[in-house]
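Protocol step 4 of 5: obtain the predicted structure for the target chain.
Materials: sequence only (see below). No template structures provided, no constraints applied. The aim of this step is simply to have a reference model before the mutagenesis design in step 5. Sequence pasted as it appears in the construct record:
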Amino acid sequence: MERKKSLPKSHPIVAIIAVAVFLLVITLAFVWYRMNYRLVEYEGGVKFVGKVVNEIPTSGTIYYSADLEAQLDMDTKTITYNNGDVYVGDIVYLQPEGQGKMTYSGGDVYEGSFKKGLPDGTGKFTYVNGDVYEGSMTEGVRSGQGVYTWKSGERYEGGFKDNRKNGNAVHTWPDGSRFEGTYADDLKQGVGTYYYANGDVYTGDFLADVRTGTGTYTWANGESYTGDFVDNRMNGKGVYTWPPVSEGAEPRVYDGYFENGQIVLSQKDLEQPQTVAEGN
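Step 4 output (structure tokens):
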């Protein structure tokens, strides 16, 4: 008759160690819990590990994603991110929410309203290159009405959309030039007036940042042209007026066609050659 093989007996030391480890884990978990340390999960996958008082996280580590985490200190209302950004201000559900100040690792600073961790509402961006933006923000980008001032002194006041100039605006340059009109995706588009630094003025249509359509260009010397433009030049039908050469004299007028900024002369016109000014 065959003998049944007996199972190996567990070593008593192994069993003792296992029980000790289990008890240690239970003890540490109990102590951790008694000291108000918790693991808290929020919508969107945000997790918090640290101290909780009255169900509110007060200090610990926030895990936003696999790459982004931060240290929370509610005593100072500070979130310090592992990418170098630092936020100080109102915090809701572990995110900047309300009024606060974000200092980005690259040196840019935003101070104003936040929503779900992003600049949203009214605020001021001070960029490391010296530029400043004050106005409306939506989900972290310039949208709405605002004023952007370049370090050089250039200034834009008007509408923004997706960080670009969009809508009615007044745009001034350090040399004294000024544009009043509409923009579309950073380009002058539609009807507007451009005041040039040398005293010239154009009022009329713009297309993709250049004079194209119908408008009036008035030179500082008094000459003017009203008519069609293409790519910043007089092209098509128009009226060119020269100021009187002397007091009481009548202005000279040419009513006809232009091409690439020049008068298209008829045989009659050739007998009385005309000269036109160059626009900006």
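Step 4 remarks: The chain has two helices and 21 strands. Residues 27-32 have pLDDT under 50 and may be disordered.
Proceed to step 5.
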